[in-house]
Amino acid sequence: MRILILTNFYPKIGNITSGIFVVKRLVEYKKFDVSFDTIPVYMKDDFFLKLLRKILKLQSTESLEKFENIKFRKIDVKINLLKKILEKTGFLNFSKEFSKQLEKQINLKSYDIIHAHGMSLNLPAGYIAKLISEKYDIPFFVTLHGGDVNYNMAKNKKNRTIYIETFENTSKVIFVSNALLEKAKSLGYSGKNAIVIPNGYDPEIFKPMDKKQVRKELGIYKKEYKYVGFVGNLIPVKRADKLPEIFENISKNYDKVMFLIVGDGYLKEKIEKEMKEKSLEYIFTGRVSQGSVAKWMNAMDIMVLPSRNEGFGAVVIEAQACGTCVVGSSNGGIPEAIGFKEYIVNEGEHFEERFVKRIVEILRNGYDSSELTRRTKEFTWKNIVKQEMDLYKSFIL
Question: Domain 211-377 belongs to what topology?
Answer without folding.
Answer: Rossmann fold (3.40.50)
